Structure formats: C-alpha cells, structure tokens
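2024-03-11 09:14:02 DEBUG pipeline.ingest accepted 1 chain
2024-03-11 09:14:02 DEBUG pipeline.ingest length=118
2024-03-11 09:14:03 DEBUG pipeline.predict start
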Amino acid sequence: MIIGLGIDIVEVERIKRAMENPRFLERILTPAEREYCRNATQVAGRWAAKEAVYKAVGLPLQFQHIEVLPDEVGVPFVRIQSPDFDLKRLRLKVSISHERKHAVAVATLERVVLHSPF
C-alpha cells in the first residue's frame, strides 16, 4: 500500500555550478555516491531523488541519511540511515530520469502489508 509520494526536478546547470564548490559534493553525496557519480547529470539525478525521498518519507532527513545507488541491474536503490525509518515495515522505490537540461525523480513509500494466514 502506497503511503507516501515525492517528486522533484532540478536544472543540471544549477548543480554543475554548485559543484564548483568542493564542499557541495561532500555535503549532499555519501562516499559511495561520490565514487559512482562522474558528472553533473548524475549528481543532479541524486539530488532530485533525495528530495523526492524526503518528500515521500516525511521525516527530518539530511542528504547524508539518504543514499541512492544502482542495484546490480542499474535500477536506483535507496538506503535510509535513520533510526526513525522502519526498514521492516516500509519500502522505498525511486525512479530517476534525465534529459539535457533537467533531472527528475519520483519516490514512493510503501507500507509492507503482512497477510494473515486466516
């Protein structure tokens, strides 16, 4: 059951300008994300995804609490590092898309429904 939805769009050029400050990447990306992202388009996608996740979850998360990396087939996978996020009962899904000037992401938060055998 979907209980949260978030969406965000960002201009790639805005992120490219922000990346001129070396502290910017350290502030918004985890070490693994910094290793993965090779250009402003990928960073913009992570920015949009984290903003979308923040909106879907509704918790006071910081950028470093949210990690978005590709899984083994390239699908974005989200990890939340917060004691307030119940990993056993909640599932996050995110989709990222890019075009020349923008990156956009949407996130859904699902409650895992445990079915009774009765």
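2024-03-11 09:14:41 DEBUG pipeline.report The CA atoms of residues 65 and 81 lie 5 Å apart.
2024-03-11 09:14:41 DEBUG pipeline.predict end
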